[in-house]
Amino acid sequence: MKKPINQQDRRDFLKATAMLAGGAMLSSIPLAGAYASGSDTIKIALIGCGDRGTGAAFQALSTKFNIKLVAMADAFQDRLDNSYQSLSSKFGAKVDVPKDRQFVGFDAYLKAIPLADVVLLTTPPGFRPIHFEEAVKQNKQIFMEKPVAVDAPGIRKVLAAAEEAKKKKLNVVVGLQRRYQTNYRESIKRINDGAIGDIMAGQVYWNSGGVWVRPRTANQTEMEYQMRNWYYFNWLCGDHIVEQHVHNIDIANWVKNAHPISVQGTGSRAWRTGKDYGEIYDNHSIELTYADGAIIHSQCRHFEGISNRVDESFQGTKGKIYLSGSNQAIMKDYSGKELYNHNTKGNANPYQTEHDELFDAVSKGEYKFSNVDYAATSTFSAIIGRYATYSGQTIKWDEALASNISLMPERFAWDANPKLMPDEKGLYPIAMPGQAKVI
Question: Which one, of 42, 52, 120, 126, lies nearest residue 86 by Cα?
Fold first, then answer.
């Protein structure tokens, strides 16, 4: 096991994160490990064939470049089959994945990654550190979905692999798509230029009705049940504050050009309380405290029948701004004068932009993207939020980052048990504030 990163590593991490805020271009240095198959075809492999993975492959194949899907990998045969059918019916010959390049099982990624120039890492988040490490080892250009880990050891693994990716000049784009969305790019550029002064407060939200449930079926092992219902188990998902709300927390860090130094807050299971909902909370409300004293409030919840809210607001010393994923951005000073109002019409799809920009760089042999530092920063900010709500304690960044508590199973196999198991009634242990050991 790798040792926790030391204080100097953390300082370097913070420095790199600040430099890369907003997904800034790195350089036009030719790629090391770029696709070099002797043709202009860029071969891609899809690792994780669920809805998001299929969507990512759809976007990659929809770019203007000569791209061919040549390998697919998933833990489950049915998910791979459904994804293959969907993609091949849409893209025809661009999907060239015969049976001998369709891989199923926990080790499927090891067989698919070597076959491609670019890999799409879109499995449940708990596997992201393992798959990212292997893709870097294999010198691949990478698109990977958010979040990038579910616990502190996973974050450290991702950071170590990210350093190797930089040395090898491997492009890495992470699916925090607001970083590729026009209203956010234009607004945060203005914020960083001082349009509303120093940001001293903010509010970020992801309040919605929640997600799917997949009932337990006969003869399922516990490993299969949890894998099928990955959203409700922290070793796979990280809780919805990590898996989903990371988008909004990422905007807070981007606006601040920093990460919180401590987090405190509260959460519970108030609505989704049955055995179908695993171990995660259905609501979190936290305060992110930054080094300059600024405090940003973060709220996410999964209650059915509620008013939904997914947006961000920030208050600076000279003005304020409202942002949303629906392309809105309204900036005003405190007299009410409008400083910026983003035109919501005709904006590009940020999910597509991620792939357009990545494959443009790959096709030209350029090294432009290292999104991992800010993605790891924001993922870990959300993880600390979970630590805070589960424990009821104020969690400090450096202490949390040094934690060696891993959520991952000791062994990946269908007959292996995850660390968290249900009781005789089928209920899972729930973190109790004041009792839960998180770091």
Answer: 52
CATH topology of domain 183-346+371-402: Dihydrodipicolinate Reductase; domain 2 (3.30.360)
Tokens describing residue 332: 């005003």
User: Nearest to residue 401, comparing CAs of 236, 161, 162, 154?
Assistant: 154
- pTM of model > 0.90: yes
Please list, in sequence order, all residues whose beta carbon lies within 8 angstroms of the beta carbon of residue 413, skipping any fewer than 6 positions away: 106, 223
Mean pLDDT across the chain: 93
233-242 average pLDDT score: 98
Note if the bond before 30 is cis, omega within 30 degrees: no
Q: Where are the domains of the chain?
A: 42-178, 183-346+371-402
pLDDT digits (tens, 9 = 90+) for 175-206: 999 999 999 999 999 999 999 999 999 999 99
**140: phi then psi, degrees, rounded to nearest 5:** -100, 145
User: What is the per-residue pLDDT for 10?
Assistant: 40
What kind of fold does domain 42-178 have according to CATH? Rossmann fold (3.40.50)
**Positions of E strands within 213-333:** 262-268, 283-289, 295-302, 309-316, 319-324, 329-333
Q: Cβ atoms within 10 A of the Cβ of 198, count?
A: 12
